[in-house]
Amino acid sequence: MALKIWRYDAVKGERALEEYEVDAPDWATLLDVLDIVKDRHDGTLAYRKSCRMMICGSCGMRMDGAAVLACKTRMVDIAESGHVPVISAMGNMPIVKDLVVDMNPFWGKIRAVQPWLEPGYSDPGEKEHIVSQERMDTIHKESLCIMCGCCVSECNSMEADPDFLGPAALAKGMRFVGDARDRATVERLQSYSEEHGIWDCTRCYFCQERCPKGVDPRDAIAKLGAEAMREGIDSDMGARHAKWFVTSAKTTGWLRETELVPKTQGIAKSMKEVTFAMGLLKHGKVPPPFPPHVAKHVDEARALYDIVKQEGAQGAAGIVQSEHALARLEFVHESGAEERDPYGPDSFPEPLPPGEGAGQ
Amino acid sequence: MKTVAYYKGCLASLSAKELDTSTQALAPKVGLELVELEAVTCCGAGDIHEAEPDYYLHLNARILAYAEATGADTLMTVCNVCTLNLRQANHALRGDAALLARVNDNLVSVGAPPYSGGVEVMHFLWLISVGEGYELLKGAAHKGLKGLKIAPFYGCQILRPSKLLGFEDPDKPESLERIIAACGGEAIDYPAKIKCCGFPIIQAREDVALAELIQPIEQAKEAGADAMVTPCPLCHLSLDAWQSKLRKQTGKDFQMPVLHLSQLIGVAAGLDSSELKFKRHVVSVEPVTERLAI
Question: Do B123 and B9 touch, CB atoms closer than 8 A?
Answer without folding.
Answer: no
